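Morning F.,

Quick status update on the modeling queue. The single chain you submitted on Monday has been processed. Sequence for confirmation:
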Amino acid sequence: MTNAVAGHPEERELLRAAFRSFDEASHTLQQSYSALTARVEQMDLELARSNEALRRQLGDNEAMRLHLDGVLESLSTGVLVVDDGATISRSNRAAERLLGARDIELQNRRATDVLAEAGLGLYDRPQRIGQTIVSISRVPLHNDSAEGSGHLILFQDITRIYQLEEQLQRKERLAAMGELIGRIAHEIRNPLGSVELFASMLQRDLAEQSSAKRYALQISEAVQSMDRLLGNLLLYTRPVRMVRDWHSAEPLIGESIKLAAHALTRVPVDIRVEMGRKVHSIWCHDGQLKQVLVNLIVNAVQAMPNGGVLEINLSQEPPETLGTSAVRLTVRDSGMGIDPAHRSRIFDPFFTTKEEGTGLGLAIVHSIVEGHQGRIDVESRVGQGTACSIILPHPSMGGDPHEVQVRMGSEPESGDALSNAHEVM
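Structure tokens below.
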């Protein structure tokens, strides 16, 4: 074989050429493999970088989603997300709380049906959900291409704004009425004194058993009743200087309950008093605050003609309510409740739904509470009862008493204002 190859130089040359070609092809293949390996490594690195960037982007998106979910759930404004088919796809906690349903119960339901069940509608005026006043609006929801992709239904709680507007209107109304009432009371009281004087003289001059003497006595009693009414009118309108101080809460409430005994003994009432552990004293004028409590207790008992539960609760109040440290004193009954149509008028003088009432009790309560730089809130459900809450400033213990000019009656030193409180309800 070797001899045969050796004997043919052409063949040897061809063989060498073949080996050279093979070596060149191997070298080229090796270079291509190295280049391919480097390229694959580069692509792996780029892919790893892309994957890492994608993971970061997904993480950022998830964090943003969670953040937006947190923002949505933290809003005090109720939000319903409604698609193009008017079907609810999402709701937040505020909306669930207002509508009394969970998100899963609201999803895939028509928004108009949900609102109708709650007695609401998509119109621009205050609406009531239980004890909450809301305004409802609809806002278009756009996607990135600015095309419509449904809308949002927003529930804005305007209860406090509504209450402030009512208070402002009430103050203006009461100020005008108070001025008029004061003038009329003074004008009537002067001739009334003359009538009382002549009736007393007639009683003295007439025979003991005569019918005329009885008539004179009835005139005198009627005049005295009118005088008490005028006295309460002046109690409502007369500005005086009132000194506040610290008064122990438990005796103050206990004495008020005793002063309201004339009403509490008429029907079976279960009285429950709850005192906050951190509230031992109240910064107030004790006589005037007792009158407030007596009037509220009597009102509560009258709202329970067949008896019921009367709760008196004293607790701390968040500072944001009055803008300062405060306490809440609540008188709650389980009675008939207040007709919503009467809610805005219950503090008006002479407004009453009772046959024997004069409509001055709550008007005086309102004046006294305002004189303490406090406020009174009323929550009521027809057939379930009423809660009247007195919110009073509660400064640091040891603060110096100070005098303030208020529109209310003089200090009831003789106890007359308290003893006659039930006559002005």
